[in-house]
Amino acid sequence: MAGRPNVKPARPWFSAGPTAKRPGWSSQAIPHELLGRGIRAPEVVERFAHGLRLTRELLQVPADWQMVYLPGSDTGAVEAALWSMLGERPVQVLAFENFGQVWATDIRDHLKLEPEVLTAPWGQFPDVSKVDPKKDLVFPWNGTTSGVKAPGAEWIADDREGIVICDATSAAFAMPLPFDKLDVVTFSFQKALGGEAGLGVAALSPKAVARLDGYEPPRAIPKVLRLRDGKGFDRTLASGSMINTFSVWTIEDWIDGVEWGLSVGGLDALIARTEANAAALDAWVRRTPWVEYLAETPEIRSTTSVCLKIVDPRLAAMDDDGRRALVTRMKALVEDAGAAFDIESHRNAPAGLRVWCGCTVDTADIEALAPWLDWAFEAAFETVPAE
Questions:
Q1: Nearest to 77 by CA among 201, 177, 182
Q2: By C-alpha distance, which of 58, 8, 126 is closest to 366?
């Protein structure tokens, strides 16, 4: 059995959301002047608008797209798009992980539509040859719970008739996003830049805005999900105005993260940091016989929410519950040591490990994590033996 390591990650936070704060983050860096002010005060509205402008710059959102804040993090942003836009034409959903499955269920059971659901087992990406450009499409770019990402977007037609709604919450700021192939791009503060939870963003292409202007869904839409007013797209939302009361602290913390991203070199630098982290973890996976990627092929492997399965032959007779117990024990060991937090797979995913490798994590911490995973596996296996 490997001995207990001596060197711990300096910042042992590897959760897939909320993710690690940016390097050097401090609450003292967050401006306090507007805390306690009314959410409709001109200074506060302008601060929210400033956050959208900075976000557009960092993410390189096209100039003719609109951007709005939504409550409920990425989930709220996706749901707002689904409720406000779908129903004009048939819809397809790519469901290759938990959240794709959630969007398919919501479209069927709550919007009362009949989506065509293109599925794939955990660790695989659906057969995109079945995507119909005449239909609307909903899919996550990166499966946060499966560690599977889209292998590019060449399969999305340039002359499509439908709109493409992309849940990009664990891809934005970490992977290139082809905006010319997408119409709605959603993400949350709590993923790639380590912001506080609760707020999401939807970026809307001119085609998406045209859908909002020209199509009134035949359903009642809850206020917090409304992207339309009586005339079509509610353009006041793109000016920094809020649907309901948002947290000023949360927006200031977000601005801090975006300013950090710009200061270190912008989007290209954030993608490079993410890829360096994923490469450091990959070096460990390649030399470690008891673990493999959940994503089966390299071209679909996430560089942010890296999901791993345990393949040690001693576990061959162990069912998913037994493997989950083993992971729970590993998690407890590294957390008790203060070496890593929140490394277990999503509750609906196969039992295994999930390590966030996004840009706010330092590569040195990924490298320091690896020996702790080896140690924890052997120590946990001794206490949770295979049956």
A1: 201
A2: 8
Residue entry with tokens 């975006």: 258
Asked whether residue 384 carries a pLDDT value surpassing 60, the answer given is no
Contact 299, 140 (CB under 8 A): no
Q: 189: which 2 tokens?
A: 């503060």
Report pLDDT digits (tens) over 129-176.
999 999 999 999 999 999 999 999 999 999 999 999 999 999 999 999
pTM: 0.95
Q: Where are the alpha helices (DSSP H) in the chain?
A: 42-59, 73-85, 98-109, 206-214, 248-263, 267-287, 320-336, 363-383
For 69-109, how does the pLDDT look when each residue is reduced to its tens digit (9 = 90+)? Answer: 999 999 999 999 999 999 999 999 999 998 899 999 999 99
Helix (H, G, I), strand (E, B) or coil at 324: helix
Whether 386 shows a pLDDT value over 50: the answer reads no
Which has the closest alpha carbon to 174: 41, 371, 360? 360
Of 20, 325, 77, 317, the closest CA to residue 204 belongs to 77
Residue 58 φ/ψ, nearest 5 degrees: -70, -40
Residue 70 pairs with which residues in a beta bridge? 200
Distance CA 101, CA 95 (A): 5
